[in-house]
Amino acid sequence: MLGIAGVSFPAEEYLKLYHGKTDPEMVEMLSQCHKCNAHGPDVQLSRCSLCKAVEYCSKKCQSDEWKGVGLDLKIVGNNPHKRKCAWFKRAMEQLPEIAAIQQLFPWSANVKGPREMIQIPNQIELLLGLKGEGVTNGYWREPGIDNAIHDSDYPLRTLSPAYICHGSMFLEPVLPSHAKAWKLPSSQIPHLEFEDSKLKSRIPALHNNDFVQDWTSYYAWRNLDRESPVALRMDMVLTVYYLLTKVLGVVDTSKGATESRRTLKIHFVGAEKELNIIPLFSELALLIPNTDIAMTFFGQACKKLCDVAKVKHPKSLANRSTVFEYTAPAALGGSTLRVKINGQSDLYDSANIALDRPDALIAENAGLFHYMTWQFVYHYAARAGIPWGITEYHMIEVLEYEEHMVQWRDLAMQGVRIDLTNNLNKISREEVAETMGRLSRVQARGAGLNPFMRPGLLCSGRGSLDPRACNGFVLRVC
Fold this sequence. Notes:
The protein has helices at about 10-20, 25-30, 60-65, 80-90, 95-105, 105-110, 125, 180, 215-220, 230-245, 285, 300-310, 350-355, 375-385, 395-420, 430-440; strands at about 45, 55, 260-270, 290-300, 325, 335-340, 360-365, 390-395, 445-450, 470-475. It is α/β, with parallel strands linked by helices. The radius of gyration is 23 Å and the shape is globular.
């Protein structure tokens, strides 16, 4: 499977790479014109000879998409294939490395792909019998029917009565035990407490010299067999670690634990399903020794959780200022983690930075150009000089951001000039000069493939064969 000859292969081979089998309906779904969606046994498709990533039913469709016919090219993110072709080619060149990640885990490499694989999120958890709506599903609790990539797609959409909202374990006064929430055999769990004599052999080594670099090193450090499916949840946690250390550079673990105690403030923006696994972020306290970590989650799902808690669950954890705390064993650096859920507003605003300036902003599977509220977050972060790292499903999006984010930067600089003219924020010319200088140096930089992407790829669809994955690709926004 890893011996892919170049990057040109039919939909059948693509399905074998992604899902372990060929499904005729999935082949038909993939085998359609990227421009007009034409498909079926009578449709003859030809591949773009340059990128090998997209297919067309006719020369007219290929020519129209190359030129961007029908697109408003003034809109950021609307690009003709003439511009995107090189990006698709770069994405296809990632396939062997991405395939290698899938091959690490038997449950990912051999999973049989159901028809619903075309939906987001990936369905491996369902096939393993882990994911469900009920309270007994612990860290695997998710909506049974969830067609939206993000809840904000459908702000008035209601989840099933059984699910209530993301983070619903915090509607209780006490969290379930770590082992119970994982729903896995003890040998497959990355434990956080080691007092039990049976778990002493599972204590990882003090995290020194940047040992954890990818899934292979993480599983080795945690003494886990690759039969364990914890990567299907720990991707959300280890992606934060990767963004902090390798993409943003706000934490340096390459020289081991620091001698002096340090603090680290993280604002996680746009949180949704991450609220279901908040205790798992304790792993950051093990990975970053001798550090007091404060983590605050923001977003529409956070407000909904807190609103439900206030009305129906007054004694719940969600009503507390700090919803979760963890202290790592002294032998592992004794770091602490304190987590808050901000339920004040659906949106992240400048007051969040002014009142509690973070060391970094994080957003996972963000969709920057799909939700324009991200532009406000960019303005706040860029003007304040806050490092911001994100992940996306699709490498093409990361490459688009690198090219077009300069437009957001120009708008942010224009906003500073307007503030000076109107004296809205009573800022001095010296402050303006400092802010403008900082903004002029801001540049979005893609860091490529995320070694902690979630195993199990997502179907691209619409005649496109480029790879996509949850937390698949990383970018430093500012």
